[in-house]
Amino acid sequence: MSGDRQPRALKNTYSAPALEKGFDVFELLADHPDGLTLSEIASGLGRSISELFRLIVVMERRGYLRKEPESDRYRVTYRVLDLAHRATPVQDLTHVAAPVMYDLAHAVGQSCHLVVPAEGQGLVVLRQENPGPTGFGVRRGATIDLFSSCSGNLLLALTDAERRFALLGPRAEEAESVLPKLEPTLAAIRARGFERRPSAMTYGVIDISYPVFGFDGRLAAALTIPFLERIDGSQPVAIDASQEHLAAAARTISAGLGWFGRGDG
Length: 265
Prior knowledge:
A hairpin with a 6-residue loop joins strand 6 and strand 7. By secondary structure, the protein is of the alpha+beta class. About 50% of the residues lie in helices and about 15% in strands. Helix 2 crosses helix 4, helix 3 crosses helix 4 and helix 6 packs antiparallel against helix 10 (about 240-255). The chain contains ten helices and eight strands.
């Protein structure tokens, strides 16, 4: 019990008011993905605007908050996520995914890539090239359209409603007109748990995407194979078998991130 008393004593003895205010701002904005104005932040925390003004300015200057110029609303940026990934290498998505993707590409003879949401787009954060002499792949750092691509639609479909606004970021206004038309497609993806369709950009390529979940059970990324169909049908592994490998790889990565959910593909 003495070990229990020490942390409480330290908590009551030491304080860092400015730091605590900064954490309060982060925690408040985490519950408001559409952002809050400075006056709304002050009201939500029960503090004065003058008390928070310099703190908010510094947090924005350091890249942890972003101010929307049209609405003056502040939102948490992906810099926080970047720090979290670098500070927790065991749960770093790319760290866990890289060896699994290597095995996947070599098992099916196709390239694969990992897509995460980033400021209203999908972002390819990791790719594994086809090990054979010819193939098709998407470069690391490429952006993927959320509204028209296989990976993007999967991200939209399987992201819960409360986080979807934050996922769309600067495209939230555009989404108001696009999403109602897209909803039947997203509903079908939710029902089957994956997406498979001809590429919207390249003839002869069929995109297949499966979800990767984090330890909290929420969608973390889309794992995608742009399956290149050879004219003579000589690809080493057929598309249906490749899809089974992809589904298993997505589950393996999810488990590596601490997710223990449904085992269906």
